[in-house]
């Protein structure tokens, strides 16, 4: 983009800022990426007149994070790769952690002094929810390289700055672990800088992958020296390294908060034991895994019992568990999202909820696809068995109300309506007066005119 085009774009951005300040509809001038970032920033209550990023880490905490951070050994590589810009433009390089907290920076004295004024310094946090739209925060938010130019920043104090940033992912864990950024004054940092920054991030990831493979090889040699090679070899993050020729575990095992045991697809329990810098997974078929029991019928709060621990569930978690119980072969995040939300679903939301559920129920939930891999008991599944057997007395005893009454999930509503219709039809056709009376005590039965009429017509006893 030429400087003339940048001037015109800057003027359109200024008009957009005026509209935001006046609460008007936004003009179409910002890029869609920037518009989406502005919306996230405003939802996080970022005020355009804010003047600095917050300081969140004192010196001792910064040093601890630096020493433990996986990018620390790669800092010379990052500096060397981006140092060539120093001879041409007044710029600085910044490296953050996955939360946008600045751990390292390099640059000339003049640009460093200007950066201090806005908190682009060690220990300050540049996530979008801290300072709004910016290269570091937006790159971390959308998980891809990003260039933010001048007035594209939501905060006005940043309009003299431009920045190009790229997230860096750890090939071992698959998680974003940090961000590399080049920042400078608006007129000196060309948008093409983002390509160099993205290449630098990829180079760092390649080095991380090389180090990971070296660690794997050292761990594999120790594993192969074991007599009989018992168990399956896992990395410290749960990545399968060796000992699973059938691939039944997939690429990764979710270790949970405590690496002690997990449930395999056949319902058996495997013990996870520390081994060198990784883990060994040893099947233990003689151990019976605990059952997951769900109580989702009626108007009361849905609960789940895992082993000997009962806990109430949020509606969303109960919906996910119900869908997994109804689809024993498993569902992808996309399928779960559609069944829960319809076309408006977001698989990212589902993955986050599954992560929280796995923290509660350990490895009872497997991935790729998501499925329950422990014995499952549920009141709505019991109803289905009684319906299949045509047993009205058992139905009347087991039916305490509709499935997840408050759920608006399209699939749950369909299942709820189908169960309700079948239970009602069975009891009206074959139920005794006692069966009908039990149904009349439920939230739907008490307003069912046909059921009440049938009971009223019975002779007094």
Automatic annotation (TrEMBL):
It comes from the Bacteria. It comes from Nonomuraea mesophila. Gene3D superfamilies: 3.30.450.40. InterPro entries: GAF (IPR003018), GAF-like_dom_sf (IPR029016), OmpR/PhoB-type_DNA-bd (IPR001867). Transmembrane segments: none annotated. Residues 308-372 form the OmpR/PhoB-type domain. The keyword Kinase does not apply. This is Transcriptional regulator. Pfam families: GAF.
């Amino acid at each position: 983009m030429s400087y003339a085009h940048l001037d015109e774009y800057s003027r359109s951005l200024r008009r957009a800022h005026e509209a935001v300040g006046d609460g008007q509809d936004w003009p179409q001038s910002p890029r869609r990426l920037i518009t989406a970032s502005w919306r996230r920033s405003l939802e996080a209550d970022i005020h355009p007149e804010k003047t600095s990023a917050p300081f969140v880490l004192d010196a001792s905490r910064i040093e601890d994070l630096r020493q433990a951070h996986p990018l620390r050994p790669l800092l010379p590589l990052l500096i060397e790769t981006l140092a060539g810009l120093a001879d041409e433009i007044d710029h600085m390089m910044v490296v953050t952690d996955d939360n946008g907290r600045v751990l390292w920076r390099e640059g000339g004295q003049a640009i460093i002094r200007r950066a201090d004024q806005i908190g682009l310094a060690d220990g300050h946090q540049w996530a979008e929810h801290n300072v709004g739209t910016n290269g570091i925060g937006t790159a971390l938010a959308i998980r891809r390289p990003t260039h933010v130019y001048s007035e594209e920043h939501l905060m006005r104090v940043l309009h003299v700055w431009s920045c190009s940033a790229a997230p860096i992912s750890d090939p071992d864990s698959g998680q974003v672990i940090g961000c590399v950024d080049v920042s400078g004054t608006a007129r000196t940092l060309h948008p093409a800088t983002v390509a160099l920054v993205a290449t630098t991030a990829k180079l760092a990831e390649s080095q991380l992958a090389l180090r990971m493979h070296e660690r794997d090889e050292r761990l594999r040699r120790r594993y192969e020296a074991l007599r009989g090679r018992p168990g399956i070899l896992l990395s410290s993050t749960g990545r399968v390294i060796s000992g699973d020729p059938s691939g039944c575990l997939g690429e990764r095992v979710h270790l949970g908060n405590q690496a002690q045991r997990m449930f395999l697809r056949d319902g058996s329990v495997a013990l996870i034991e520390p081994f060198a810098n990784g883990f060994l997974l040893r099947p233990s078929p003689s151990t019976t895994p605990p059952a997951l029991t769900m109580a989702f019928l009626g108007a009361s709060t849905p609960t789940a019992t895992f082993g000997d621990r009962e806990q109430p569930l949020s509606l969303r978690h109960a919906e996910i568990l119900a869908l997994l119980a109804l689809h024993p072969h498993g569902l992808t995040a996309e399928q779960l999202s559609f069944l829960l939300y319809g076309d408006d679903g977001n698989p990212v939301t589902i993955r986050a909820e599954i992560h929280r559920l796995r923290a509660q129920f350990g490895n009872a939930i497997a991935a790729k696809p998501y499925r329950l891999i422990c014995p499952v008991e549920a009141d709505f599944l019991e109803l289905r068995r009684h319906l299949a057997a045509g047993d009205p007395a058992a139905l009347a005893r087991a039916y305490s109300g509709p499935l997840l009454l408050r759920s608006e999930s399209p699939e749950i509503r369909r299942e709820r309506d189908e169960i309700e219709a079948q239970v009602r039809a069975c009891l009206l056709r074959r139920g005794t007066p006692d069966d009908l009376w039990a149904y009349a005590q439920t939230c739907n039965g008490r307003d069912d005119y046909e059921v009440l009429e049938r009971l009223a017509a019975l002779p007094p006893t």
